Amino acid sequence: MVSSSEYGSHTWELSLTVDHQHENVQKEFSLQVTGDLHVGGLMLKLVEKIKIAQDWSDYAFWWEQKKCWLLKTHWTLDKCGVQADAKLIFTTQHKMLRLRLPNMKTVRLKVSFSSMVFRAVSDICKTLNIRRSEELSLLKQSEGTLKKKKKKDKNSKELVTEDILDLCNSPVSSGLPANPGLYSKTMTPVYDPVSGSPASSTITWFSDGSMTEQNCSILALSHPNCSLETLAEMYQPRTLADKAKLNAGWLDSSRSLMEQGVLEEDQLLLRFKYYTFFDLNPKYDAVRINQIYEQARWAILLEEIDCTEEEMLIFAALQAYHVSKLSLSSETQDSTCESEVDEVEAALSNLEVTLEGGNKSNILEDITDIPKLADNLRLVRPKKLALKAIKTYWFVFRDTSISYFKTKESAQGEPIEKLNLKGCEVVPDVNVAAKKFGIKLLIPVADGMNEVYLRCDNEDQYARWMAACVLASKGRTMADSSYQPEVQKILSFLQMKNWTMCSQAASEPETVDMKPECFVSPRYTKKFKSKQLTARILEAHQNVSQMSLVEAKLRFIQAWQSLPEFGLSYYIVRFKGSKKDDVLGVSYNRLIRIDMATGDPITTWRFSNMKQWNVNWEIRQVAIEFDQNVSIAFTCLSADCKIIHEYIGGYIFLSTRSKDHNETLDEELFHKLTGGQE
C-alpha cells in the first residue's frame, strides 16, 4: 500500500510502452503522474525508470488511441488531453521505410514518421539528391492496383529483396539534417551534362558519402529494357475509372506518416505528383531528370496516358536509343571533348527554356505591338446528322481571338464569327505521314464546349497557329516571349515524327539487341509483329541517334508534355445537382469535367479565373467560385476530397515559385493553401 501522504489524491497511474530493441528488458511501465506534469518531464521520469544507457533523443510519445504524436514537450498532460485510459508508446520518430521510385527501383531508408509528409518528402529528396521536392509526394497503392502484384510477391520474395538499394546510413536516416539539395550559381556541377553520370571529382557533395557514385548511377541512369513478364504483371488502366484508382492513395501532406497508418518497413511509391517541372538543369538534376523520364516512360508503356501510333514510335525510338547508348563503356562517355559539351549545353539551355515555358525576363518583347497571324485555313465543323463540313476561310489571329472571313478581301469588314480562345482546350490532331495537320479547339460556352477543327497546309503553318492557340488558351498573346520557343518545340516534335527508311536501318536489327515489345504499350504489341515493330522503331531512331543521353531524356519528357492528356489526374466525382457520376481531371492550370462514358470534356474551369475554394468537411463537399458568378460544388467518390483540395492548392503554390528566390520554400504558405480546416 502507498500512503496518501506520499501520493496526493490528484495523482493517477499512466501505462507506458517503450519500443526498444533490447531483449529480456522490460517494455511495459506504469508511472504515477499528475495532470500538470509536462510531456518532457514524463519522458525524463520514464527514462530514469528504464535504466538503459542509450541515446533517447529520437524518441517521442505516440498516442495510440488518438493516432497522434505528443511532440510539444512543454505542454502538460492536461493540455494534451491525456488521462488514465491513454496508451502511450515511447518510440523512435525515424523508422525504416521502403520507397518504390519512378524507375521501379526500391530504396530503403530511415524517414521521419513524426514530421508532416511535406517535410518528410523534402528530407527524402535531399538524401536521393532530387531538387524541387515540392513536386513529389508519397502514394499508397490502392487495393485495385495491387491485385496482379500480390501473386508475384508470394513466389518471388527473394528476388524483390535483392533489388533493394539500402540507404539506411544516410544523414536523414540517422535523424540528422542533410545537405539542402538545392544549388547556388557558384556551386560546382555534380553531373556530366552529356551522359548524366556523376562527376567523380564532386561526388563528395552528396550527403556524408551515403550516396556513393554507384548508388547515384543507379538513380541517375536508365535501364529501360524490362522483361515482358514484368510489364504484363503491372496494373494497366483500361478506362477513366481505372485511371482514377491511380490517384486515390496520395498521402495527406499536412499529416505525418504514422497518423496515416503507415508502419515501419511498409512500401510506398515516391512519385512526381505535380506536373510542373521547374528549373530543370542537367548539371545538377541527373537523378531528377531520369526519374521524371522514368515516370513518363512507365505512364506511356502502361497506357496511363494515350498517344498516337506515330508518337508511340518516337517514344520507343528514344528508349531503344538508351539501350544501345548504355552498352558503351564509361571510358567512351568520358572522352567527350569540351567543344561537344559546349554545343550540347547550348542545345540543352534552349530545351530548358522550352520545358520551363519560356524565359519571362525579356520584358521589351512583351510590350511591343502584338503580332497577328493571317492565313487561309480549312474550318471543320462536326455535324450531328451529316458528315463533317469542311470549308476554306481567311483566318486572322489577334490577341487571344480567332476571326474568320469569307475571303482575304472581306477581312476589313465584320467577321463571320469571332472565337475567344481564353480558357479553351487545344488538342493536336496530327499525322505527319498522311500530311494531316489539324488543331482541335474545345471552346467553353454556357451549355458546355463548342467543338471547332482547324486544318493547316504544312508543318510551319501548323506550328505557328498551334503555338498561338496554346498561348491564347492561357490568356497570353503572341507578343509573349514564350511564343517562339513554343513554335520551335512543336517543329522539333514534328521533325522527330517525320522519318524516312534508309539503308542503315535495314542492317541495324542484326546489331541492336532489342525486344521491341518492351518499348511500346500492349495495344501496339498486339497490332504489329515483332519484326515490323523493330523496323518501324529503327526508322524513327534515325532522327534521334545523334542526341546525348540527357538530351534524349529531355526530348522524351518534352514529347510527353506535348500529349493532350499530359498532367491530368483523374477523380470520380458527383457534381451538385447532377444525377450521374462524372470524371474530374485536375491539371496544373485548370479543372476539366469529363463524361465518364465517352471521355469527352464537358466544361473547363481555369485556376486563373478562380476566386476561392473551400471544403465543407461535414458532407465532404468541395465548393469553388470563379469569375462571372460561376460556382461549382462536388463530392469525390474515388478518393478523399482532401486530395483534390490539396491538388488545387498545391498547383497554386507551385505557380508562385521564382528563380530569384529558389533557395528556400515557403512551407507555411503551402500548408495554408493545401491544409484545409477539418
From TrEMBL:
InterPro entries: Band_41_domain (IPR019749), FERM_2 (IPR035963), FERM_central (IPR019748), FERM_CS (IPR019747), Kindlin/fermitin (IPR037843), Kindlin_2_N (IPR040790), PH-like_dom_sf (IPR011993), PH_domain (IPR001849). Gene3D superfamilies: Phosphatidylinositol 3-kinase Catalytic Subunit, Chain A, domain 1, Pleckstrin-homology domain (PH domain)/Phosphotyrosine-binding domain (PTB). One of its GO terms (molecular function) is integrin binding. CDD domains: FERM_B-lobe (cd14473), FERM_C_fermitin (cd13205), FERM_F0_KIND1 (cd17180), PH_fermitin (cd01237). Keywords: Cell adhesion, Cell junction, Cell projection. It is found in: Cell junction; Cell projection. GO terms for biological process: cell-matrix adhesion; integrin-mediated signaling pathway. Its main location: other. Residues 378-474 form the PH domain. The keyword Signal does not apply. It holds the Pfam family FERM_M. GO terms for cellular component: cell projection; focal adhesion. PANTHER family: FERMITIN 2-RELATED, FERMITIN FAMILY HOMOLOG 1. Belongs to the kindlin family. This is FERM1 protein. It comes from Pardalotus punctatus. The gene is Fermt1.
